[in-house]
Design a protein that fits this description.
By secondary structure, the protein is of the alpha+beta class. The protein is built from eight helices and twelve strands.
């Protein structure tokens, strides 16, 4: 079910009684135009449309109020990406991971060509409680391999509905239809000792909660993974080395790529590593003007 709210600070929710599923509602929703005269900050605070997708327990008077206690379950998965360098590389990374699943991608209200910001919505296989929701968010985020907004893990976080501004002329809006994404089911026994829902620890996947530095270190320790996905992992790894979070020079990035391949159980051939590395490096030179 979808519950809507007007203004980012509003805790009152309105149940949308359309009879549509949360996914169908969002997938068919037209973006709300933002008046050209509106100040984005004030409009976001008082007039922007937001939602919660799932099941919310009503108050004694029959109304709905957003908080961690009243939210019983989630039925859509949301991840916000606010710190992207290139929207096309981001789209490629998302599509590579989620091409077999149903997902939506649309720009958030603060989007600009200089600072692209996107909301990713994934259709899950079933409703999720808080622990399973956060574990599934982490898994998807880790598979995509790019930093996402930590507020995506907040249980009762409002998600902005699609809007349209003049700055979004070159933005990507995309809908993919496929399978429902299998959620991470976490039993009570598996979360014993977890003191906070935000903790990564027990419920995390391989890279959940890791910093960018730790992702680099773990790739150097564990290699590029299994046959079939090694080129994809190598591509992301080299891109990560060149990103603003690491800022690796070309010579060092090349040596690190070779090390990551060398510790892989079934490593790529040297010429395949060279070909992939050269392709990514050329793209990064054009995009970020790396110093060579």
């Amino acid at each position: 079910m979808i519950y809507t709210s007007i203004g980012v600070q509003n805790r009152r929710l309105t149940l949308v009684g359309s009879g549509m599923s949360s996914w169908d509602y969002l997938a068919t929703l037209e973006p709300v135009p933002v008046p050209s005269t509106a100040g984005l900050g004030q409009w976001k605070k008082n007039q922007a449309p937001y939602c919660i997708a799932g099941t919310v327990e009503s108050e004694a008077d029959g109304s709905y109020k957003r908080n961690n206690k009243s939210l019983v379950a989630r039925d859509l998965i949301f991840l916000d990406y606010d710190d992207l360098e290139d929207q096309h590389s981001f789209f490629e990374a998302v599509n590579e991971v989620l091409k077999d699943y149903s997902f939506l991608l649309y720009p958030t209200i603060s989007y600009s060509q200089e600072k692209p910001k996107y909301r990713l919505v994934v259709k899950p296989s079933e409703e999720m409680d808080e622990v399973s929701y956060k574990a599934t968010v982490r898994e998807i985020g880790d598979r995509i391999g790019l930093p996402y907004d930590g507020a995506s893990l907040t249980w009762s976080q409002l998600q902005g509905l699609p809007v349209e501004t003049k700055a979004m002329a070159g933005a990507i809006r995309f809908q993919n239809l496929g399978q429902d994404y299998p959620i991470q089911k976490i039993g009570k026994a598996e979360v014993v000792g977890v003191t906070s829902p935000k903790s990564s620890g027990t419920i995390s996947t391989t890279y959940s909660g890791d910093s960018i530095t730790m992702r680099v270190v773990k790739t150097l320790l564990n290699g590029l993974g299994d046959e079939g996905g090694r080129n994809v992992v190598l591509t992301r790894f080299v891109g990560l080395l060149y990103s603003k979070y690491v800022r690796c020079d070309v010579a060092t990035a090349y040596e690190l790529a070779k090390i990551a391949n060398s510790v892989t159980a079934d490593p790529l051939k040297a010429e395949e590593v060279d070909r992939t590395f050269e392709s990514i490096t050329r793209r990064e030179i054009e995009k970020r003007r790396l110093g060579l």
